[in-house]
Amino acid sequence: MESMTSAHLCNFLAGAATVAPISTRRRRANSFSVQMGLKEDGPSLAVVGVTGAVGQEFLRVLSDRDFPYRSIQMLASKRSAGKKLTFEDKEYVIEELTPESFDGVDIALFSAGGSISKQFGPIAVQRGSIVVDNSSAFRMDEKVPLVIPEVNPDAMAHIKLGSGKGALIANPNCSTIICLVAATPLHRHAKVLRMVVSTYQAASGAGAAAMEELLQQTREVLEGKQPTCNIFKQQYAFNLFSHNAPVLSNGYNEEEMKLVKETRKIWNDPNVKVTATCIRVPVMRAHAESVNLQFEKPLDEDIARDILKRAAGVVVVDDRVSNRFPTPLEVSSKDDVAVGRIRTDLSQDGDHGLDIFVCGDQIRKGAALNAIQIAEMLL
Ligand SMILES: NC(=O)c1ccc[n+]([C@@H]2O[C@H](COP(=O)([O-])OP(=O)(O)OC[C@H]3O[C@@H](n4cnc5c(N)ncnc54)[C@H](OP(=O)(O)O)[C@@H]3O)[C@@H](O)[C@H]2O)c1
Question: Which H/E stretch holds residue 54?
Answer without folding.
Answer: helix 53-64
